[in-house]
Design brief:
heterotrimer, A alpha+beta, B mainly alpha, C mainly alpha, A: alpha+beta, Immunoglobulin-like, 2 domains, 5-stranded mixed sheet, 1 helix, C: mainly alpha, 17 helices, Cupredoxin (chain A), metal-binding (chain A), Cytochrome aa3 subunit 2 (chain A)
């Protein structure tokens, strides 16, 4: 099979380019540790409270150390449970100081959901039977909308909350 | 006869056609792929 | 100088004789079969397009859907009827035309092809009815544990089974042809059809397995729970090759039909075949790149499939080169020199060329976006945002669809014994421009909005009144403008179809099939080492999927019961 000289250049450059892309991605993933969410922990979807993180009192934001937080979320059709405030009302908005490290843990008792703080790199699938987790450093102040981005039923677009990263 | 001969030479597998325009075109395509990818990577890293 | 006879003798053990592609004429019965596929595709286009219009209007927040119709019913119809029905009917019809034109159907083969058609049509009708009565608001990906009416799944399974019958007919045609022509290379277009059907059959095993052993028994109540992640993994094992099943017929036209339309020859028969072989290898073992942000799947295997996904870029790079080279060589032969002078010769006023060409242009941003989507951790930035439908409205809904329209402009008159008239050609050019403009507006808005975080497959919502949601709203208006233009483009296309079928003057419209150069390099025999190609494909699949699937089964959480209340039924 004959290849034109220029086609050899083109395919050569293309293949080298793709390899360079892969090396950059691989370096970011396996050396710097920025993987997409791939947590493997399982949970009984009909008994999520068996896992401490998803007991009603542990839902929402908890400060564990200076600049370190855990955010436990239960996604269900059609609501994000971010815990309750002192008066018992459901929390919809969360505030975190800029520069904090946050471990987000989420699961669902029903169907598949998406969990995305729009505009951040916190974006993961939430599936029955699994705990999804992601740890990120929030450096850019601003308001980020929490949206369900995987179709979960007719009220899918009514699942939301917000995250404020404050100076 | 002459035209037939000429046609024969032009399409001989041994002689490569002139594909300079093609090389430039695919280079532009390659540059677009490179720039968009780097742009996406940068945006990802800034978030 | 070597005469062709000498060349053949010299390499006879390693290369094929080249007798040129023989063109048969399509019989009346073959034409009727192919037209039946085209009718279903056209009706699907109209219905799906109308759903698209309602969707963009509803999501703009300015309009409410009439008669209490649910947004997600419309979204399900849009996805199923366009992504699954319109594409597969057009593709199988077109591929049957290519098989009829290059190899031909026996009477018995044609009868079986009709069986395939009817099974697909019955499946389509069953699925469509369940969706329209609101019992299947699960979108075209039907992710468990959302549960639709069992007939929805049965209908879709029948569509797949019908396509298998046609695939079996195509394989049989090809096998008999090869037996009768032992030292000849198969016709290029038939070769491509067989590659696409092989890929389709191997890929659909995934979704069929999931349907038959998991989803259908579970939806009927014979099984209490379902392994959600397994069903998703099997779905995406099928879902990525599905997009190549759409794309390859467009590539068939680019490699082997467009050269004839522009008055040129095939750039390289061997390279075209080689790129299709690579598509067979690398289209399937890559489905995990749709599941990069999912729990329960190991990150190493995700990365391995990302590497395999990058491999599938290579045959598209080859295709890009071949297209430019075809244009340049043809232009230079016509006397248009210079670096870009050859662009001037291209038949810009011939819609059979212009529509696929605009499709090719769309594949530049489409391909660029695709590489970004597949880029492991970068995928997190765009996953399930509206960037993703923005991306596939470039690749599928522009590259593929405009190429299909470009085919229809000559195929439909050819089948109905009429001519492509100047008036229809002109309308087609307007249609192409309208499509290009509408899609540019809509897709650009979707890409930007996606980068800003807006979710895909969602009805209008102000998300509690955040500033971000207000910002998305502006782009949703742009989407509505683009989508409305596209709807008018679809109406124009339907008008063109009707004109071509019923009102154009009788005549014989050419079925353009490009030939190789008289002294083109002979095609090596290894290109048709089918057993090896299938073996490599299966080995790659086993390599990429064995461990992840074993993992999903062995480390499975308690299964999920069916949920039908979230979809409103």
């Amino acid at each position: 099979m004959h290849l034109h000289k220029y086609e050899k250049y083109w395919l050569g450059a293309g293949i080298v380019g793709l390899i360079v892309f892969l090396i950059i991605l691989g370096f970011g993933a396996f050396y710097l540790g920025t993987h997409p969410q791939s947590h493997g922990e399982i949970i009984d979807p009909e008994n999520i409270e068996a896992n401490d993180a998803f007991k009603p009192e542990n839902r929402g934001l908890t400060k564990v150390d200076e600049g370190r937080y855990v955010l436990n979320i239960v996604a269900s059709a059609f609501n994000y449970d971010l815990g309750t405030d002192e008066s018992g009302a459901p929390i919809k908005n969360i505030e975190i100081p800029a520069g904090s490290k946050v471990l987000v843990q989420a699961t669902t008792p029903d169907v598949i959901h998406g969990l995305n703080f729009a505009g951040t790199n916190i974006n993961m699938m939430v599936e029955p039977g699994y705990v999804s987790t992601m740890e990120v450093e929030l450096n850019n102040p601003g308001e980020y909308t929490l949206v369900c981005n995987e179709y979960c039923g007719v009220g899918h677009h009514l699942m939301y909350g917000s995250l404020e990263v404050v100076e | 006869m002459v035209t037939k001969n000429q046609k024969h030479v032009n399409t001989n597998p041994e002689s490569e056609p002139n594909l300079k325009g093609t090389l430039i075109s695919v280079s532009i395509l390659g540059a677009i792929l490179l720039v968009t990818w780097i742009g996406a990577l940068m945006l990802f890293l800034l978030r | 100088m070597a005469t062709p006879a000498n060349v053949v003798e010299k390499f006879s053990s390693k290369v094929f004789h080249n007798y040129g592609t023989v063109e048969l004429s399509l019989s009346k019965r073959e034409r009727r079969l192919i037209m039946s596929y085209m009718y279903v595709a056209m009706i699907s286009l109209l219905v799906g397009g109308l759903m698209g219009l309602l969707q963009v209007l509803a999501r703009s927040g300015e309009f409410e859907l009439p008669w209490g119709i649910n947004y997600y019913t419309i979204l399900t119809v849009h996805g199923v009827i366009l992504a699954l029905v319109m594409t597969s009917f057009f593709i199988i019809g077109f591929q049957n035309a290519l098989m009829g034109k290059t190899i031909g159907f026996s009477k018995k083969q044609l009868n079986w092809a009709w069986v395939g058609f009817w099974i697909m049509l019955i499946g389509t009708v069953i699925a469509a009815v369940t969706i329209l009565i609101g019992k299947a608001n699960v979108l075209y990906t039907f992710y468990a544990p959302l549960k639709a009416h069992p007939l929805f799944y049965i209908g879709i399974t029948l569509v797949v089974v019908g396509s298998w019958v046609t695939a079996a007919v195509n394989f049989r045609q090809f096998y008999l042809w090869k037996k009768a022509h032992p030292n000849e290379k198969s016709p290029l277009l038939a070769f491509m059809v067989i590659i696409n059907m092989l890929m389709w059959c191997i890929a659909t095993i995934g979704v069929a397995t999931s349907m038959l052993i998991e989803i259908i028994p579970w939806s009927l109540g014979y099984k209490n729970t379902i392994n959600v992640l397994l069903s998703r993994t099997l779905f995406w094992y099928f879902g990525h090759p599905l997009v190549y099943f759409w794309l390859l017929p467009a590539y068939m036209a680019w490699y082997a039909i467009i050269p004839k339309v522009i008055g040129g020859k095939i750039f390289s028969d061997s390279l075209a075949r080689f790129s299709f072989i690579l598509f067979l290898f690398f289209s399937i073992p890559v489905g995990l790149h749709h599941q990069l942000t999912e729990p329960g799947l190991d990150s190493t295997w995700k990365f391995i499939q990302v590497i395999l996904t990058f491999m599938v870029v290579i045959p598209s790079l080859m295709t890009a080169f071949s297209m430019f080279a075809t244009f340049e060589i043809t232009g230079r032969k016509k006397g248009y020199g210079g670096l870009f002078g050859w662009l001037k010769h291209l038949p810009w006023k011939d819609v059979r060329f212009l529509a696929p060409f605009v499709g090719m242009l769309a594949f530049i941003p489409g391909g660029a976006g695709g590489i970004i989507n597949a880029s492991y951790q970068i995928n997190t930035m765009v996953h399930n945002t509206i960037w993703v439908p923005g991306h596939f409205h470039l690749t599928a809904a522009t590259t593929v669809v405009l190429t299909f329209f470009g085919i229809a402009y000559w195929l439909i008159p050819h089948l109905t014994g009429r001519k492509l008239t100047d008036a229809v050609n002109r309308l087609g050019i307007y249609q192409t421009i309208l499509w290009g403009v509408g899609m540019t507006i809509m897709s650009t808005a979707m890409h930007i909005q996606g980068l800003a975080g807006a979710p895909r497959r969602s009805n209008f919502s102000d998300y509690g009144g955040t500033e971000q949601a207000a910002e998305w709203g502006a782009y949703q208006m742009a989407q509505a403008v683009g989508g409305t233009i596209l709807f008018f483009a679809i109406l124009l296309m339907i008008f063109i179809f009707i004109k071509m079928i019923f009102f154009s003057p009788k005549g014989e419209q050419e079925f353009p099939i490009a030939q190789e150069e008289d002294h083109a390099e002979p095609t090596p025999k290894w290109t048709e080492n089918w057993k090896l190609w299938i073996a490599i494909t299966l080995v790659l699949i086993l390599f990429a999927y064995t461990v992840p699937i074993m993992d999903v089964i062995q480390n499975a959480p308690p299964g999920s019961a069916p949920f039908d209340w979230p979809i409103g039924s």
